[in-house]
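ZP: hey, is the NAP complex queued? I don't see it on the tracker
AM: it wasn't, my bad. submitting now with these inputs:
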Amino acid sequence: MARKITANLYMTLDGYGEFPKYPGWDYVSEEPDEFWNELWISQYDSVDTIIFGRGSFEGHEEVHSISKRKPTDPYYMFDYSRFLEKCQKIVISHSLKKVEWANSRIVEGDLTELIRNIRNEPGKDIIVEGGPSLVHEFIQRGLIDEYRILVMPVIIGKGHNYWGTMANQQTLKLISAKTMKYGELCLRFECVHDFNASK
Ligand SMILES: NC(=O)c1ccc[n+]([C@@H]2O[C@H](COP(=O)([O-])OP(=O)(O)OC[C@H]3O[C@@H](n4cnc5c(N)ncnc54)[C@H](OP(=O)(O)O)[C@@H]3O)[C@@H](O)[C@H]2O)c1
């Protein structure tokens, strides 16, 4: 079976991939919360590849590579950094010339073709981690099998939006919906790829 692609989305209620302030936005728990478990920990065993846009890759390397962890960080952030280090990290970029983060590579070209090739490489499942404009391109092209979404209780009205115009409807099946301490929603959907075809 081809490798599954899960998109991890962090968004405001109006779909922007921004990180706004709201009551509880900066709360750091000693233990991972539901959102962290759904988007990351529960996928550590099944995923070995992460796809990033250029900005998202550079941001993650700067903040989450193991050398950037601080002793005061909770243990599960060290686990996250170790997971990122060992994953294959694929950066989709037409401008980057080289990458230094271990197990990283740059790819460019037609997105649908690139993803078809990556899916056919041997390996475990795949997470596409953003940013929002790259994930939007995946959504438009129907390249995603599952969504794991943190919805923050904010309407921000500006920034990079995950959603947008689509040529075709995408039909989803809700897997779970959980509420969190500060009013965030943690949603999980599976794509029903053949819904229209089967009618
Ligand atoms: N909410 C989140 O999870 C999240 C995550 C990451 C970023 N952000 C925020 O979003 C902002 C920027 O994010 P972004 O959406 O521009 O993401 P990004 O991670 O910078 O991805 C966009 C870059 O990916 C490359 N790319 C290659 N093919 C692409 C395609 N078909 N469509 C789009 N990009 C393609 C391009 O790099 P080249 O120019 O090198 O070709 C493009 O500049 C940042 O300000 C950040 O704060 C939010």
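AM: back. The chain has a mean pLDDT of 95.
ZP: great, adding it to the tracker
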